[in-house]
Amino acid sequence: PSFYYFGGIFYKKFQRSNFTKIVIVANLIMRLAWTFSISPDVISKIIRPELMTLFVGIVEILRRTLWNFLR
User: Fold this and answer.
1) Cα(49)–Cα(18) distance, integer angstroms
2) Of 13, 67, 39, which Cα lies nearest the Cα of 56?
3) How far apart are CA 64 and CA 71, in angstroms?
4) pLDDT > 70: what percent of the chain?
C-alpha cells in the first residue's frame, strides 16, 4: 500500500475493491428507500404503512451492517 502525508500524519491509501463500490451503490439505494418513509402519504397508495415501516427498518439494519464490514 502507498502512503500519503497530511497534517503531520502518514495515512495508508487503499484501493477500492468491487465490494466497496457495490456497497456504496447499495447504500445510496437503501437511503432512497428511507426517504419513502418520511412521506407516508405517497407510499400508502402502493403498500400499507406498517409494512413499509417494517421494510425500511430491515433495510436500515442491512445498510448499517454492510458499512460495518468496511470499517
Assistant:
1) 35
2) 39
3) 11
4) 87
